[in-house]
# Entry
Amino acid sequence: MEITRQRPASQRGPAEHFTGSVWLDEIAVPPAPSRLRMFSVHFAPGAHTAWHAHPHGQVLHVTEGAGLVQRAGGPVEPIRAGDTVWIAPGERHWHGAAPDTFMTHLATVEAAADGSTTEWAELVGTQEYPGV
# Structure
C-alpha cells in the first residue's frame, strides 16, 4: 500500500482549454500499469471547459456547488453537489460552473496507451453557454 501525503501545487487551467478561473489539483496518478488519473477541478462562477473528449470516457462527481454539462447535440444539463456524470469514450462535451455559483468536481479518466487523457477542441461559444 502506498500513501501519498504531498501533492503538486494547484495549477491554473490554461486559457486555451478553459474559460474563466479554473484550478486543477492532481489527486491520483498511480504508477504503471495503472492508467487512472484523478483531479479535483475548481470552477469560479461562469468558468467552464472547452469542448473536449476522453479516449476511455470520464467520470465527474460534483463535490460542491452547481454546474452545467453538455454533450454534443444534446441539451445543457444542470449538475449539483452529489451528482455523478458518466461521459462515454470519445463523446464530445464540456462542463463547468453555473453562471452564478462556484462548482468543484472530481474528474476521473483512464489514460490511453500513449499517456493522453484528453482531446481538446475549441472553446465553448458565448451562444452555447447559458446565462452569459
